[in-house]
Amino acid sequence: MMRIEAEALAFGYPEHPVGRDASLSVGAGEVMCLLGPNGCGKTTLFRTLLGLLPPQGGRVLLGGEDIGALPRAETARRIAYVPQAQAEMFPYTALDLVLMGRIAHRGMFAGPSSEDIAISRQALADLGIAALAERDVTRLSGGQRQLVIVARALAQAAPLIVMDEPTASLDFGNQVRVLSEVRRLAGRDIGIVLSTHDPDHAFAVATRVALMADGKIVASGPPREILTSERLRSVYGVEVSVEVLSDGRSVCSPKW
Amino acid sequence: MKSSAGAIAIPILCVVLILSVLIALTIGAYPITLEGFWSAIARLWSGESAQTPEERVLLNIRGPRVIAGILVGASLASAGVVYQGLFRNPLVSPDILGVSAGAGLGAVLGIFLSLPLAAIQGLAFVGGIATVSLVYVIASAVRGRDPTLVLVLGGVVVGALAGAAISLLKILADPYDQLPAITFWLLGSLASTRGAEITGALPAVLIGLVPLVLLRWRINVLSLGDEEARSLGMEAGRVRAAVIAAATLMTASVVAISGVIGWVGLVIPHIARMIVGPNFERLLPTAALMGASYLVLVDVLARSIARIEVPIGILTAVVGAPFFLWLLWRGRHGWS
């Protein structure tokens, strides 16, 4: 089973350390949700987990091997990345963009094969957006574009996916749609690490939560145990109450 | 849809190129009728030496000029497509890294030293490659910033320095003999290209073209930016270096035979992207074909609209600048 493990990870830049002592472990079917205020280092931690930034201490293991020692293509076959959607890009079709997820599976000088096209169309169909295949991505809504990027991660066929604030700047309906896809992916035994600003999203999808503040993971564990009103107050500095609904779900609401 | 436009665009553009070549071969100071043209071609094809005026004009003057137009136009447009994708900016052109300024400096130096034509072209080529290498070294030395931005800014700075050196040489040059040659060269022209120059430039252009064709899919991925390209499994830095080297080789080798011809590498990629979309696999052949036809036709204008030869760089600017204003005025959606 492919796991991503961070051991006593220090991350950031040599002249500008961002965080340290981050340890986590995520495997098949698990959803680790990273919560923390703006600027606490979530994106920098993700870039280090993906091997895009070298660790400043500690190490990242992918399937037991140090990520720094793996070739980029091998890393991409083990872990996929769903970045926040770019505002400016060339008007590729959704299918062209999803096809780019197949690059790690093909040789240096290859073009996409008919198998790659079939896999990419299937990824779009899995997310219910097969009809968007020939559409220009710059003309899609934010939610549709986010789903296209998720489809690209599926086409990449990696057992692990990292998503950087996949619900950011989406309307309510699209947030729910993206989160329900996260749950379905976990049901297909994909391990997921995602960040969010909304504790309710963690209640909805996470099997584990890591609460971050000032570059450190201050608490991690099952959502119910970690997301208490005291911890949320100390991390975000606002009064919050966490209620359990009659059907057993937890929700979080500010105290006005 | 753009994908279906891509399928028919390439055959149509092939026909357009053939027609452009026919026009360029028959129109000019010595007009050639179609019958005269075919009989001359048939005789030359069968291996006989050029005897009639038609045959000599076709073989020694217009033929090389048309081939040079195809070579220069296709290379500048291909390099433009590559640079725009790579720097994720539709406003860049092949001279963004200082290729043209460096090649210009090399050629001006050659003219200033009264070197023979082949040496001038060699210096232009070396100047172009040296400038881009210098820019690349500077960008590698400045770490920890956006590598693409540093490359572009480095290109602007080194290009400006080369421009200053060119101005100095123009002041020092002999105003009656060298200065007109320098000015003509800096404005670009296909007038002096002969067979030997083409056979000199052709291998370098082909060597530059091969990696672009082989890496066509990866160039798409590079246009998403380094970070995303790496997360998709690509050694982005290495591929980018290879692609820049290839596009620079093409640009420098054609600038060496034609002088500095602006706007082609900026405008043609835009029109090509409007027709077939940004996917590099279709965009590269489309832009190359359009660039070739465009330059062949503009060169016909350059040698026929006035009693004297008009430098082709002036015409490409006269056509390109209003087109670009139109692009701005039309507003833009995404980067189409």
Overview of this structure, please?
The complex is a heterodimer of chains A (about 260) and B (about 325). Chain A is of the alpha/beta class. Chain A has a single domain (about 5-90, about 160-255), classed as Rossmann fold, CATH 3.40.50.300. Chain A is about 30% helix and about 25% strand. In chain A, helix 4 (about 115-125) crosses helix 5 and helix 5 (about 140-155) runs parallel beside helix 6 (about 170-185). The longest helix of chain A is centred in the last third of the chain and has 16 residues, at about 170-185. The N and C termini of chain A lie far apart (about 45 Å). Chain B is mainly alpha-helical. Chain B has one domain: ABC transporter involved in vitamin B12 uptake, BtuC (Orthogonal Bundle). Helices cover about 75% and strands about 0% of the residues of chain B. Chain B is built from 14 helices and no strands. The longest helix of chain B is centred in the first third of the chain and has 34 residues, at about 55-85. Chains A and B meet through helix 2 of A and helix 9 and helix 10 of B.
Shape of chain B: globular
Write the element-wise H/E pattern of chain B from the N-terminal end onward: HHHHHHHHHHHHHH
**What is the count of structural domains of chain B?**
1
Number of strands of chain A: 12
Please state the structural category of chain A: alpha/beta
Q: In angstroms, what is the radius of gyration of chain B?
A: 20 Å
* Run of helices and strands of chain A: EEEHEEHEHHHEHEHEEHHEE
Distance between the termini of chain A: 46 Å
Please describe the biggest sheet of chain A, giving its number of strands, its sense, and whether it closes into a barrel: 6 strands, mixed
- As for the number of domains of chain A, it is 1
Q: Report strand order across the widest sheet of chain A.
A: 6-7-8-3-9-10
The CATH architecture assignment of chain A turns out to be: 3-Layer(aba) Sandwich
> Biggest interface, and residues per chain?
A-B, 39 and 33 residues
Nearest-integer average pLDDT of chain A: 93
SS strand fraction of chain A: 25-35%
The Rg value of chain A, from CA coordinates, equals 18 Å
pLDDT average of chain B, as an integer?
88
The name of the CATH topology of chain A is Rossmann fold
Distance between the termini of chain B: 14 Å
The coarse overall form of chain A would be globular
Structure summary, number of beta strands of chain B: 0
